[in-house]
Amino acid sequence: MILGITVASAAGRAGPQSHTSPAKPPPAHKAAAPKAIAKKPPGKPNQKPPTPGNVAPSAHPASIPEIDRMNPAERKKFLNQLTPAQRAQAESELRAYDSLTPAQRDRVRRQYEAFRAMPPAKQTEIRRAFDSFRRSSPERQQAIKSEVRTLNALPPAQRNERMASPDFASSFSPEERQTIHGLLEAPAQP
User: Fold this and answer.
1) Rounded to whole angstroms, how far apart are CA atoms 185 and 183?
2) What is the pLDDT of residues 70-118, one digit of tens each?
């Protein structure tokens, strides 16, 4: 489940930081400049408007592969910005990630890159599915995992047929069915 895990940093939660000097207003001939500057250049990271799935509007999610690429000082600074619960979760996930073989870590990195290439709405749907999965009891997590594996092994037509069946509907709650659908959208493990 490492792919579905992101840790939201507390960076910027203390309030907006001003990057302009309040010394004096701009001359009248430069009054239109703030509008031009306010436009966000395409392709710049961390300049997108917040999505509904973000923990806080100014929070910057970081994945375990991203944290793993940080040097020790950057990692320490990042982890120190987290709440105690977030930090404990991140450290636990980093230990699990560090215990993977290089091939497994490479697979997780590829999955993460595929996830990051998805549209923000799809990323939000997948994050919500993983969050819902984590809130499930261990027994329900096992049932959901088993069903996702089964559905992933089926051709699309059979998968849709199975998900529309009365047996599927009676085996899973509406929230679990939505979770399963979201988990199926996550990048597949090769």
Assistant:
1) 5
2) 888 998 898 899 999 988 988 888 898 889 999 998 998 898 889 889 9
